[in-house]
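Worked Example 4.2. Consider the chain below.
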Amino acid sequence: MLLSKWCKRFYLVAGDVLTGSSQVFTWHPASWPRTNGGFGSTALNLDYFNSGNIGNVSLVNATNLPVDGTEVHATLWFRQSGGVWYSRQWVLTAGGG
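Applying the procedure from the previous section yields the following structure tokens:
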């Protein structure tokens, strides 16, 4: 099942429960020159999913997400003009399988 999350200005809601092993996440704005998103078992770790550089796209279909009720750490990196990378992190919960 795909679940769309609208991230107002790059915000997920901490504590959200994921509903499957594959989900679509969106954010705003889409005007950042470079964006990278990922999910992992610990902060800043991308062992579940790494989007790689997706340019100025505002969504990613994350796959390989766990469904065992564990914590999932989401990270969104974005680069604005000037070349400086910024990141935001959230802790979510994997849905029960």
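The first strand starts at residue 5 and ends at 7. The CA atoms of residues 31 and 59 lie 12 Å apart. Compare this with Example 4.1 before moving on.
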